[in-house]
Amino acid sequence: MPSRRIAKVNRAILEAISSAILFELRDPRVKNVTILNVETTDDLKASKVRVGVRGDAKVQSLTLHGLESSRGFLQSKIAERLETRYTPILKFVLEPNWLDHLTATSQGFLEAAATAIEIEDDGTESADDETDAETPEVLEDDDDDPPTG
Fold first, then answer.
1. Burial class (CB in 10 A: 0-12, 13-18, 19+), 130
2. What is the pLDDT of residues 87-127, one digit of tens each?
3. Helix, strand, coil tally for the chain in percent (to 5)
């Protein structure tokens, strides 16, 4: 398991790459890309970026080639975000079964969310009871009385 610092760097790299691909990268080959994971070495000199691409093998190959071509641009965005002595050199790795990975992750998330919600015996959620008690009552104003102020 990576150290806390490396985990934070991995998260920052993932966010910087995702944002740059989504908003700034103009390469038409790079589309339908999902950044799955980033693994950075302890010396911060290299990062392995695992990506998933929707489409057939030809589209995946073109997208991976486009990512490799735009590596310098993406590394400059990472350098702006990290502000460390070294900027990791990116290596893009295509994950062939990435949809299975996402399905398993989302299934685990849904199961965790379902167990986190406490449902009472009568079938109502306990969170609803708390919000009803906090809502203020609205008093009706008689139109005959002049406003006080």
1. exposed
2. 999 999 999 877 766 666 666 666 665 665 544 444 555 55
3. 50, 15, 35
pTM: 0.66
What is the spatial distance between Cα 13 and Cα 37, in angstroms, rounded to a whole number?
10
Q: Which domains does the chain have, with CATH numbers?
A: 4-98 (3.30.300.20)
Distance CA 149, CA 143 (A): 15
Going by pLDDT thresholds of 50, 70 and 90, the confidence category of residue 78 is: very high
Q: Which residues are registered as beta bridge partners of 39?
A: 48
Tokens of 79: 């350098």
